[in-house]
Amino acid sequence: ATFGTLSDRLTETFRNLRTKGKLSAADVDGTVREIRRALLDADVALVVVKDFTAKVRERALGDEVSKALNPAQQVVQIVNEELVQILGGAQRRLEFAKTPPTVIMLAGLQGSGKTTFAGKLAKQLEKDGHTPLLVAADLQRPNAVNQLQVVAEQAGATIYAPEPGNGVGDPVKVSRDGVEHARRQQHDVVIIDTAGRLGVDAELMKQASDIRKATNPDEVLFVIDAMIGQDAVNTAKAFQEGVDFTGVVLSKLDGDARGGAALSVASVTGRPIIFASTGEGLDDLEPFYPDRMASRILDLGDILTLIEQAQQAFDEEEAQKVAEKFATDQFTLEDFLGQLQQMKKMGSMKKMLGMLPGMGQMKQQLEDFDEKEIDRTEAIIRSMTPGERQNPKVLNGSRRVRIAKGSGMTVTDVNQLVQRFDQAAKMMKTVARGGTPNIPGMGAM
Ligand code: GDP
């Protein structure tokens, strides 16, 4: 996944460092050299790498490290802080106009993920109670209007598009009319999808710039494909000069990109990354948090995003009930079944587990994690009677044999499930009562 190799190499560098007590200047230089190589190999722009390593080196040789109780830890902390800076520092949210409609214009190369992002954003805005209008101003690419139509339908959003068959329309006029239409129809947000080219070209820039002038957007979001590598900086600069933008959307962060674009764009353009797009589905959109991303890269874990995703997937009321049951020891296999079904909604378990601290070092276990396990567990519980689900203590030998047969599993599978359920219930009881669970075991699953 994105940042995989970079993350591995940085953690490896820090592991070597951790075995040392006091750090000599040579230790620091060695570490900085390794960080520099890792960043360059991850396609981070040279200017950014130079600046970053110079800052890390200076701080690592200074007092805060030599006086620290644990110098190695302090260096990791410095790298973390500087990484957050590179990624833009504080989180920046989408800004809305004081008087609606808020106009959001999208710009970027063809294939960067603009249209997909338009749908994702519309869906998220709808969820938050907005009434977005998608404007199809990409009249260059055949089929672009259609594609936006499909995306809008999936997102449950309204689209404004030129009548088909009218020959080549004027994207500037369509954009201006779209905003006017939104105003009349009381849409509080307008998302304008503009044309992209495979490479940066003057005509495209002029068109985008004209659309900007005609619609006076509150946000111009530059969508950039994280896989673009070393070209990221030039492309971003060209768009900054040609149209200028107020924020960045990183797309395809789920892919095998080396992450260079992500680590270069914000510091080279001085514009914040506002969203991360992490898949082809319309729900694969996350707000971008520089600090959480840095933690992910350094394998310090991204617990906050994990919790937010869990909260989105879990029904609030349901979660409350379950927490009470945990605390009072009333959690049953029936509840467990409900939890598993909710968990499936949460999408890839691997993606989730990858956000836990230290998980980067447990790659193999993650790779081995079998999402079908949830299905098997479900099958076993479904073969139990309601009474058995309520009170697993009644599960004697013959009942277990019956359940194994019914679910197509072995008695050992059934035994393991009951045992794991016990462990999970114990662990969750601790959490529900405000304690810290023993996560590394992950016995819950
Ligand atoms: P546009 O030309 O800029 O409008 O780009 P599109 O939205 O058409 O996206 C180009 C391709 O990238 C499509 O096949 C999308 O499904 C895919 N895509 C867009 N965003 C993402 C993402 O975040 N992750 C992945 N894996 N694919 C994406």
UniProtKB/TrEMBL annotation:
Main subcellular location: cytoplasm
Reaction equation(s) it catalyzes: GTP + H2O = GDP + phosphate + H(+)
The entry's keywords: Cytoplasm, GTP-binding, Hydrolase, Nucleotide-binding, Ribonucleoprotein, RNA-binding, Signal recognition particle
Annotated positions binding GTP: 108-115, 193-197, 251-254
Domain SRP54-type proteins GTP-binding: 272-285
InterPro entries reported in the protein's UniProt record: AAA+_ATPase, P-loop_NTPase, Signal_recog_part_SRP54_M_sf, Signal_recog_particl_SRP54_hlx, Signal_recog_particle_SRP54_M, SRP, SRP54, SRP54_GTPase_dom
Subcellular location field: Cytoplasm
Residues that span the membrane, as ranges: none
This enzyme's EC code(s): 3.6.5.4
Domains as described in the record: Composed of three domains: the N-terminal N domain, which is responsible for interactions with the ribosome, the central G domain, which binds GTP, and the C-terminal M domain, which binds the RNA and the signal sequence of the RNC.
Function, in words: Involved in targeting and insertion of nascent membrane proteins into the cytoplasmic membrane. Binds to the hydrophobic signal sequence of the ribosome-nascent chain (RNC) as it emerges from the ribosomes. The SRP-RNC complex is then targeted to the cytoplasmic membrane where it interacts with the SRP receptor FtsY.
Subunit comment: Part of the signal recognition particle protein translocation system, which is composed of SRP and FtsY.
Family (UniProt): Belongs to the GTP-binding SRP family. SRP54 subfamily.
Protein name: Signal recognition particle protein
Species per Swiss-Prot/TrEMBL record: Microbacterium murale
Gene: ffh
